[in-house]
Write a structure and sequence with these properties.
It is globular and about 55 Å long. By secondary structure, the protein is an alpha+beta fold. It is built from 2 helices and 5 strands; from the N terminus they run βββββαα. The model has no long low-confidence stretch (mean pLDDT 91).
């Protein structure tokens, strides 16, 4: 449950979040079905790749994500949503097998 952090926009599995105490912003990938958030900002996540994940709570978002300026977080949010929409609308045709 979120009591301090605000999700100010959610689209295509991504959430733009605001921390009013610090007036900083972040973006997380969100799965309401699983009740989890995932790191998605370029500098967030394990150094060997992958994503951090945690419950959709204030502490969970703080765990998986760093905090950034509004303009930077909004840019990353737009990029992630665009990538998601592109993948969802792309047409994949498997290669033809030999005759």
């Amino acid at each position: 449950m979120l009591t301090e952090i605000e999700i100010i926009r959610e689209e295509s599995g991504y959430a733009l979040c605001h921390n009013p105490k610090s007036d900083k912003f972040t973006v997380v990938q969100i799965s309401r079905d699983k009740g989890q958030v995932y790191s998605t900002m370029p500098t967030d996540g394990p150094s060997d790749g992958g994503q951090w994940f945690a419950a959709i709570t204030d502490a969970g978002i703080r765990y998986v994500a760093g905090w950034y300026s509004r303009s930077y977080a909004q840019r990353i949010f737009r990029e992630r949503v665009a990538e998601s929409l592109l993948m969802a609308n792309s047409f994949y045709e498997p290669p033809l097998q030999g005759r």
